UniProtKB/TrEMBL annotation:
Belongs to the UDP-glucose/GDP-mannose dehydrogenase family. Catalyzes the conversion of UDP-glucose into UDP-glucuronate, one of the precursors of teichuronic acid. Pathway: Nucleotide-sugar biosynthesis; UDP-alpha-D-glucuronate biosynthesis; UDP-alpha-D-glucuronate from UDP-alpha-D-glucose: step 1/1. The keyword NAD applies. NAD(+) binds at residues 10-15, 35, 40, 91-95, 132-133, 166, 277-280, 347. This is UDP-glucose 6-dehydrogenase.
Length: 469
């Protein structure tokens, strides 16, 4: 089946970049990305490519080439569904905050709404592709909804999980390790899978495109993120051991990363992992295990989350204890709010939780991040519900200049590994802060010897204070 018209429901961090690359590589296919958020669609259509709603290196150039040719962004969801032969579902699947599975299970209400809208609008056969990260057997739920519409339309459901790392999403899309497509084990399912294989094969070698059954595809996404998160939590557990023994976590990471059985990726110690995927997917895995009575399996994976939460709490506690056990009324500068560099995504960012802990101690936080908006930062804090929006705005301010942010600061905390932080005039910053001048490096980013030479009392994740002197 030759696909000529694709619709993607959801113009977020997955849908927008994925469809942009897909359109770039398939100029003969019309790709329409739809979203009910008018502001988001306006941003995707903005003439100023610097105002795209998502920051990813290389994305502006791709959108510039494909947009208006065969890539379109719209709020007319029903028209796009009606015209498409293939529909990608790429909407948010947050962790439930209510009811059964609260705090662990994925909230599938947006997925169900998409399925019901497709069922309502569709008058011709469709291939529906799960692009959102979903718990195992969600495809069956979608199929149940679609097959009971009474319209006589036939649907095939495919699972096509994304394996993107934010900050390198464009490169991950252009040269992926693999593309995974799960489908029904039937003649119709095979035809549907082959239709999607042919789209990806315009730029990806076919040997890197894997086809499986739907359930294997859905579970593979959760397990991949769980394994990666496990590595981050493992090295973060070792970082504390390094701090008390005099070892250097960077040297330990380098030594074990050279073991071919282990490899170097995801062994960089930090204040904790963030992003939309790791925590959500592990909690999903925990919930599935508990649902089937596999309590030991659930406890094992839940420990990865517990270690990550502890690392963030430990970082905040270290700031308080170092600043003579009180930060009340003290100005603490945060450099970075995004959960990692080269993205403006802040979901589950360690900065949110470190700030919340310090604000509970009545610290005054000043935030600078080169890509995250003031609006987004306040939304992150308000979502926690720890205090009123007015109190959040009283205790935390956002500025657009790192040197202004650092003036009269009692401490500086590095929460995101933006490259520009390395290049700052740290002597200028030292001259403007309250003495003694404390820097807490949650990303092991700066040169400890240089910082100490300037005069800073410098602390870094995974290195003992004696090593910094």
């Amino acid at each position: 089946m030759k696909i000529k018209n694709i619709c993607c429901i959801g113009a977020g961090y997955v849908g927008g970049p994925t469809m942009s690359v897909l359109a770039l590589k398939n100029p003969n296919i019309k790709v329409t990305v739809v979203d009910i958020n008018q502001d988001r669609i306006n941003s995707w259509n903005d003439e100023n490519l610097g105002d795209l709603p998502i920051y990813e290196p290389g994305l502006e150039e791709i959108v510039n080439e494909a947009r208006g040719r065969n890539l379109f962004f719209s709020t007319d969801v029903e028209k796009a569904i009606d015209e498409a032969e293939m529909i990608f579902i790429s909407v948010n699947t947050p962790t439930k905050t209510y009811g059964k599975g609260k705090g662990m299970a994925a909230d599938l209400k947006y997925i169900e709404l998409c399925a019901r809208q497709i069922a309502k609008v569709a008058t011709t056969d469709k291939i529906v592709v799960e692009k959102s990260t979903l718990p195992v057997r969600t495809a069956q739920a979608i199929k149940d909804i679609l097959d009971n519409t009474g319209n006589g339309v036939k649907f095939q459901i495919l699972s096509n999980p994304e394996f993107l790392a934010e900050g390198t999403a464009v490169q991950d899309l252009l040269t992926p390790d693999r593309v995974l497509i799960g489908g029904e084990e039937s003649e119709e399912g095979t035809i549907a899978m082959n239709s999607l294989v042919e789209i990806y094969a315009t730029w990806i070698p076919k040997e890197n495109i894997l086809t499986t059954n739907v359930w294997s595809s859905e579970l593979s996404k959760l397990v991949a993120n769980a394994f990666l998160a496990q590595r981050v939590s493992s090295i973060n557990a070792i970082s504390e051991l390094c701090e008390v023994t005099g070892a250097d976590v960077g040297e330990v990471s380098r030594a074990i990363g050279m073991d071919s059985r282990i490899g170097p990726k995801f062994l960089k110690a930090s204040v904790g992992f963030g992003g939309s995927c790791f925590q959500k997917d592990i909690l999903n895995l925990v919930y599935i295990a508990k649902t089937y009575g596999l309590n030991e399996v659930a406890d094992y994976w839940e420990q990865v989350i517990i270690m990550n939460d502890y690392q963030k709490r430990r970082f905040a506690d270290n700031i308080v204890s170092t600043l003579y056990n009180t930060v009340s009324g003290k100005k603490i500068t945060f450099l970075g709010w995004a959960f990692k560099k080269d993205t403006n995504d802040t979901r589950e960012s360690a900065a949110i939780y470190v700030a919340d802990a310090l604000m509970n101690e009545q610290a005054e936080i000043i935030v600078y991040d080169p890509k995250v908006s003031e609006k987004r930062i306040y939304e992150d804090l308000d979502y926690l519900g720890s205090r009123s929006p007015e109190e959040n705005r009283r205790l935390l301010k956002v500025v657009k200049d790192p040197y202004i942010a650092s003036e009269e600061a009692h401490a500086i905390a590095i929460l995101t590994e933006w490259d520009e932080f390395i290049e700052y005039d740290w002597k200028k910053i030292y001259d403007s802060v309250v003495k003694p001048a404390f820097v807490f490096d949650g990303r092991k980013l700066l040169d400890a010897e240089l910082m100490s030479k300037i005069g800073f009392d410098y602390s870094s994740i995974g290195i003992s204070k004696t090593q910094n002197k």
